[in-house]
Design brief:
Blueprint lengths: L1 E9 L3 H5 L4 H8 L3 E2 L2 E2 L2 H10 L4 E5 L4 H4 L2 H12 L3 E6 L25 H17 L7 E4 L6 H9 L4 E2 L23 E3 L2 E3 L4 E5 L2 E4 L7 H13 L4 E7 L13 H16 L3 E3 L22 H31 L3 H13 L1
Parallel strand pairs: 1-4, 1-12, 1-13, 4-5, 5-6, 6-7, 7-9
Antiparallel strand pairs: 2-3, 8-9, 10-11
Helix pairs in contact: 6-7, 8-9, 10-11
Length: 347
């Protein structure tokens, strides 16, 4: 069967830190997904997965411990482990610029792949130790922040005993992801000492890869990508999201389109007899005879339907924003109430 890996890059925001957010505010926004309508982060995601009998993989970034202290990583890891979902290692090196202690001296960089091999080993080893210190089992899989890994990253992982990497995303080739693999093959394969588990996806137009991400794919595209993986005999289908991705871009309200897409993804995996839920712990390594898994070809009408869907979703959010702004600023005005009624009717 094809194993469906539904993963979430689980990370605090360096941007919020730079804008003055303390540890609690960053945690609530980035991890709990808290907004005025409730929480739509990791707890909400696990609720949805469990309703469909699925297991999620949470790639947790421990690097904020260098700024906020290790207790905040404990708070992230604890509920994931308690509910039986899988914790693996994520790493955003942006935090080194703000760290009280830099384990690689004065070196900083946006991506792990910006560092020499010895520094990568040191950073990954430290991040692993912080993660296990927070109560996570020893991680066997890694994903670079921003997918910004290179072949040295995989060599560092192999030297540290990791079995899997999931940093290869063809949409990021030339934009930080420098792993030397064929972007047209989305199958698992051994590379530089570890098993690479690429992000799945399809071509949405000639020469452009669309990753299996909630904010990037429509329900139709996600179903087609799952079907293509299963029909091709792929070992895995790897979809990803973020701990905060079910919020709007400004994180003030839930992203109803992304929530609907996650529900549809869970339903598609649960209902397909060719697909089972899995984490990296139960993922078999590819055999030497494992064949190439070609990326699904583009379908222009499918792409157009997604572009229209996302455009309508963004417009609806803007209309709601204007409506709420009117309600706050001119609610006491007679004309403000009339205008607010018109905008409400449009929403």
């Amino acid at each position: 069967m094809t194993r469906a890996l539904i993963s979430f890059d689980t990370e605090l925001s360096a941007g919020l830190y730079q804008r003055g957010a303390d540890a609690r505010a960053n945690f609530e926004s980035s991890i709990l997904g808290r907004c005025r309508d409730g929480d739509f982060g990791i707890l909400f995601q696990m609720d949805m997965l469990e309703r469909h009998g699925l297991t999620g993989v949470y790639f947790v970034d421990p690097m904020p411990a260098l700024v906020y202290g290790p207790a905040i990583i404990d708070e992230i890891v604890r509920p994931i482990v308690a509910r039986g979902h899988e914790v693996q290692l994520h790493l955003h090196t942006e935090w080194l610029a703000f760290a009280k202690f830099n384990p690689v001296g004065r070196l900083t960089g946006r991506n792990i792949g910006d560092f020499p091999l010895a520094a990568q080993k040191r950073l990954i080893g430290l991040a692993r130790d912080i993660l296990t210190g927070a109560g996570a089992p020893r991680p066997t899989a890694f994903r670079a922040g921003n997918f910004g890994a290179n072949d040295d990253t995989l060599r560092a992982l192999a030297a540290l005993g990791f079995r899997f990497d999931s940093s290869f995303n063809a949409a990021y080739r030339g934009h930080g992801c420098d792993i030397s693999l064929d972007a047209g093959d989305i199958g698992m394969r051994d590379h530089a000492g570890v098993c690479e588990v690429p992000v799945s996806g399809l071509m949405d137009r000639a020469h452009r890869f669309r990753p299996a991400q909630l904010c990037a794919m429509s329900e139709e595209e996600m179903r087609d990508a799952i079907d293509h993986a299963a029909a091709s005999g792929a070992i895995q289908f790897s979809a990803f999201s973020h701990s905060f991705e079910l919020l709007s871009r400004d994180r003030k309200v839930p992203n109803r389109l992304a929530i609907a897409r996650m529900e549809a993804l869970c339903r598609a995996v649960a209902d397909d007899p060719r697909v089972c839920t899995a984490g990296f712990a139960g993922l078999p390594a590819p055999t030497r005879r494992a064949g190439r898994i070609q990326v699904a070809a583009p379908r222009p009408l499918r792409t157009l339907r997604r572009v229209v869907e996302q455009g309508v979703g963004h417009l609806a959010h803007e209309v709601r924003y204007v409506r709420d702004l009117i309600a706050v600023t001119v609610n006491s005005s007679r004309w403000g109430k009339i205008l607010g009624g018109v905008v409400l009717a449009m929403a």
